[in-house]
Give the backbone structure.
Amino acid sequence: ILNVEQSPQSLHVQEGDSTNFTCSFPSSNFYALHWYRWETAKSPEALFVMTLNGDEKKKGQISATLNTKEGYSYLYIKGSQPEDSATYLCAPRQAGTALIFGKGTTLSVSS
Amino acid sequence: DSGVTQTPKHLITATGQRVTLRCSPRSGDLSVYWYQQSLDQGLQFLIQYYNGEERAKGNILERFSAQQFPDLHSELNLSSLELGDSALYFCASSVDVPSTDTQYFGPGTRLTVL
């Protein structure tokens, strides 16, 4: 079973702060990595799908990088806003397997 | 709104009972996935169907079963329910099987077993 670690487990920042979280996964047989955003009382919403080593994705003030050789991905949020408060899930996938979700990093942004 | 629908939204039942959760995928999506989210647990993959056939199996108990019908909607059947089966059950859908495919999640069904 793929072991996915996300850190930190939770994070509290002030509006305007920039922040980043880490997703660690086994690098063997890597196929793709998905990032999802999950707001309270809603369902997970896809942010990025990343496949190539060195891949970088950006959506508004949120960006992500991928290192498949060492098995990690970073998610960055520049200038956090209260509406960025959510749990951010990463889900790597090995060849021929389903997505395995980490437990997520819960971000709380205070105004 | 992801386009994936799930019914019912809430379900309260007793131990030993059987329930059926229903999912309708986004129009055009052939794959359906079922996930379970229990307290303090992440999203646990249960099972995937693609165009009516089982494609991948995760941590699905033998008391649970699923199927995907010709119109592509899917049902998850949970039987001999135990207290520990109380959880949020999500369905997700995607266009096709390839691993880079984005999954779109439904609103979930919250199951409470008393």
Remarks:
- The radius of gyration of chain B is 13 Å.
